[in-house]
Amino acid sequence: MTITHLPPFDITLKSGSLAVREALRHLLERLGPLELDIEEAGTVELVLAEALNNIVEHAYRAPEAAGPICIRCSHKKDGLHLRIRDRGLSMPDGPLADGGPARTEMISGDLPEGGFGWFLIRDLAKDVQYRRVGIENRLDLRLAVAMNATRGGSVHELRP
Amino acid sequence: MELSTKTEEPLRIVSVREPRIDAAVAIEFKDAMRARTEDGPNVVVLDLSQVQFIDSSGLGAIVSVMKTMSSQRQLVLAGLTPTVEKVFRLTRMDTVFRVFVTLEGALATLRT
């Protein structure tokens, strides 16, 4: 069984909700050789969409402050490692610390319309870590998809 | 945001003719949905069978539409594709809405 191993790659975008769409499309295209199934592709798209939307809506909150976002994607034995960097406002304490399950016990008039984003990231991604490094926000996470190497078989390197 | 609306008493069916309900269109979707559900039958079936992707903003917009409907009225979801279904399941919003696998199934049940 020959297994595709993707070399690391970067995708850079300027903050904006349409740019997020474009970046997601681009990323999934780059992951094409991994032949993710619909479940795995959905996980990748969802987690990345939430992380990027969070940057667009909070880190670069002011429209005139829209700045660069850089995504580095590395494919390793234990899945896809993503590092997402931006130069916007730092993340306040909290979202990673709590963000429990959506509270469906509340009566419908009080149902939350937001706050699902971090919940989805925490639920779907592994090893989520946020750090402020100088003027940069750095979010690292791992997606347990395309873990070919753990199923055995040789790894076939794709040269860029 | 392209929505198509059909009224078949006692139901109103709103079909989303877009592949995505994401942050880029969430507000537009919410406004368009409100305009389509202001009046008419009490049960509104939201047909999501053409929607391949929804994010938390899109989910929030659907919740918001439901919340603005009066308490006698109901927003029912039908035709969830895999990623859309995943978002509703993980956030447990599938327990808040009545969810049907297909539009046909929803219509068959709700018409009776």
TrEMBL record, chain A:
Pfam families, alphabetized: HATPase_c_2
UniProt keywords, alphabetically: ATP-binding, Kinase, Nucleotide-binding, Serine/threonine-protein kinase, Transferase
Annotated GO MF terms: ATP binding; protein serine/threonine kinase activity
Domain Histidine kinase/HSP90-like ATPase: 20-142
Entry-linked CDD domains: HATPase_RsbW-like
InterPro entries per UniProt: Anti-sigma-factor_SerPK, HATPase_C_sf, HATPase_dom
Protein's recorded name: ATP-binding protein
Source organism (scientific name): Sulfitobacter sabulilitoris
TrEMBL record, chain B:
InterPro entries: Anti-sigma_ant, STAS_dom, STAS_dom_sf
GO molecular function: anti-sigma factor antagonist activity
One Pfam family hit: STAS
Domain STAS residue range list: 21-110
Membrane spanning stretches: none
Entry similarity comment: Belongs to the anti-sigma-factor antagonist family.
Official protein name in the record: Anti-sigma factor antagonist
Organism from which the protein derives: Sulfitobacter sabulilitoris
